[in-house]
């Protein structure tokens, strides 16, 4: 039986179980719903509408109608709306955090951090909205004058993941609204309640109806995604998720040549050189590898450690993870929660078994826990070798896999041996090496002596098959703008 919102929220009206379209709370035309379950307990917490293609098309049309007027609002007006949305998020941090943990499983401390991080994008882009500039250009013809101006691209389809159900929406919606676009947000099926709570706060902030629309679906996710990528009204799609799904969405979007920004899968190398401060490196590894039980796209997936400090660093890591407390995310003492669902558990288990069968050594963990069907022990694997699944695929789980290396070149070659390139980390006290390695790594983001690299001021995105485009920072708003050239002849 679902728990009543008032039993765990200060403001029970933040728990919404209908979609938000054109300023109204609506169900699917079919009346169908799907269950949202708590991964810690597998108990249903709510039901949300199962939108289909027709529901989605209706939401897109409403967003288009809103765009016609919203695009004409002043930059300062858009800034004030985003600022108010930010303030409401900050006022409701605790309730938003509890909703995230309830449907996502991450510990409350992580959820609170996410809410503040998510809100920071609304604050950041409220400040960017009035700073959209064009240029004056010297034309070749002396009798002509040439300028450029930036305009909103149009209605945007935003497809968000479940692991950061607040931050991955605001990181997209913030710049879109700042630019003057309207949006249709496809909430993650595993964690839609957070997206709907954000929609409620957008409503309270006074954002005009139709500018922000949030829709939900589970069984119809593929069909809804296809509408967002093929409907000609949608001019831009922003997606965060896996590389295979990104490739499919890109193919579908080609039918109407949409503007795209994709933040896809990662396989982050984490390099510890022999001269590194091992305490600093360990703190960086804990922050990078084990946050929300390893279910982040930028978490360390391959830990490369110089042979001179290899055994010592593994021992330090094991001692650190022994202090973790795994359990229900709602418990304040929990440091690490469950994985999102059974498929995630199966993948982690498969990766561990594959590594062990090929010679890896389990130093800690390596098995499911009796806490519930979605819990897997924090795992440390040593003596990894090339070709093991855990080093080739994105594990997305609490598995730290260690590889020894002997030279800087070997470490760089191992780090770059991947089809994807989202984030990379390394630790060294040698300033010359820091520049050499940072420039040599084939990734979109590098952490040098730091394991947490997310910041609203930082451009977030990857290279190779990790996607393209940047979110956050001064570059993030450009993803939702187009450049118009205006040439005027002087008679």
Automatic annotation (TrEMBL):
GO biological process: carboxylic acid biosynthetic process; gamma-aminobutyric acid catabolic process
Pathway: Amino-acid degradation; 4-aminobutanoate degradation
Active-site residues per Swiss-Prot or TrEMBL entry: 263
InterPro entries: Ald_DH/histidinol_DH, Ald_DH_C, Ald_DH_CS_CYS, Ald_DH_CS_GLU, Ald_DH_N, Aldehyde_DH_dom, Aldehyde_DH_Superfamily, Succ_semiAld_DH
Domain Aldehyde dehydrogenase: 25-486
Enzyme class: oxidoreductase
CDD domains: ALDH_F5_SSADH_GabD
Xref: PROSITE patterns: ALDEHYDE_DEHYDR_CYS, ALDEHYDE_DEHYDR_GLU
Catalytic activity as recorded in UniProt: succinate semialdehyde + NAD(+) + H2O = succinate + NADH + 2 H(+); succinate semialdehyde + NADP(+) + H2O = succinate + NADPH + 2 H(+)
GO cellular component, one term: cytoplasm
Annotated SUPFAM superfamilies: ALDH-like
Gene Ontology molecular function terms on file: aldehyde dehydrogenase [NAD(P)+] activity; succinate-semialdehyde dehydrogenase (NAD+) activity
EC number(s) on file: 1.2.1.16
Keywords: Oxidoreductase
Similarity comment: family membership: Belongs to the aldehyde dehydrogenase family.
Protein name: Succinate-semialdehyde dehydrogenase
Organism of this sequence: Aaosphaeria arxii CBS 175.79
């Amino acid at each position: 039986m679902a728990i009543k919102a008032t039993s765990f929220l200060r403001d029970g009206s933040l728990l919404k179980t209908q979609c938000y379209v054109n300023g109204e709370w609506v169900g699917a035309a079919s009346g169908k719903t799907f269950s949202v379950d708590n991964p810690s307990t597998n108990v249903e917490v709510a039901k949300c509408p199962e939108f289909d293609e027709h529901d989605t098309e209706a939401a897109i049309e409403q967003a288009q109608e809103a765009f016609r007027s919203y695009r004409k609002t002043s930059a300062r007006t858009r800034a004030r709306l985003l600022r108010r949305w930010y303030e409401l998020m900050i006022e409701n941090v605790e309730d938003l955090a509890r909703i995230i943990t309830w449907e996502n499983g991450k510990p409350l401390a992580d959820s609170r951090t996410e809410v503040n991080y998510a809100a920071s994008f609304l604050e950041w882009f409220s400040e960017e909205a009035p700073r959209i500039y064009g240029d004056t250009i010297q034309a070749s013809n002396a009798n002509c004058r040439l300028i450029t101006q930036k305009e909103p691209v149009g209605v945007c389809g935003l497809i968000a993941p479940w692991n950061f159900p607040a931050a991955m929406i605001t990181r997209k919606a913030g710049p879109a609204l700042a630019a003057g676009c309207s949006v249709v947000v496809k909430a993650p099926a595993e964690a839609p309640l957070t997206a709907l709570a954000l929609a409620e706060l957008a409503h309270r902030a006074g954002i005009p109806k139709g500018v922000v629309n949030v829709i939900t679906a589970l069984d119809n996710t593929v069909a809804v995604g296809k509408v967002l990528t093929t409907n000609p009204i949608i001019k831009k799609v922003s997606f965060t998720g896996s590389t295979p799904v990104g490739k499919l969405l890109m193919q579908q979007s080609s039918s109407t040549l949409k503007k795209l920004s994709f933040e896809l899968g990662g396989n982050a190398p984490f390099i510890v050189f022999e001269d590194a401060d091992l305490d600093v490196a360990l703190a960086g590894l804990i922050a990078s590898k084990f946050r929300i039980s390893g279910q982040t796209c930028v978490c360390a997936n391959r830990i490369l450690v110089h042979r001179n400090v290899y055994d010592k660093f593994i021992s330090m890591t094991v001692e650190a993870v022994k202090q973790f407390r795994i359990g229900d995310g709602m418990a304040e003492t929990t440091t690490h929660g469950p994985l999102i669902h059974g498929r995630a558990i199966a993948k982690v288990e498969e990766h561990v078994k594959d590594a062990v069968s090929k010679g890896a050594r389990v130093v800690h963990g390596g098995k499911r826990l009796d806490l519930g069907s979605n819990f897997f022990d924090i795992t440390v694997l040593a003596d990894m070798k090339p070709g093991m699944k855990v080093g080739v695929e994105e594990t997305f789980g609490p598995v730290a896999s260690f590889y020894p290396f002997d030279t800087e070149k070997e470490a760089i070659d191992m780090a770059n041996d991947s089809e994807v390139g989202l984030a990379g980390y390394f630790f060294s006290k040698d300033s010359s090496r820091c520049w050499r390695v940072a420039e040599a790594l084939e990734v979109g983001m590098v952490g040098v002596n730091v394991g947490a690299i997310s910041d609203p001021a930082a451009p977030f995105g990857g290279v190779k098959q990790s996607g393209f485009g940047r979110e956050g920072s001064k570059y993030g708003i450009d993803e939702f703008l187009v450049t118009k050239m205006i040439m005027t002849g002087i008679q």
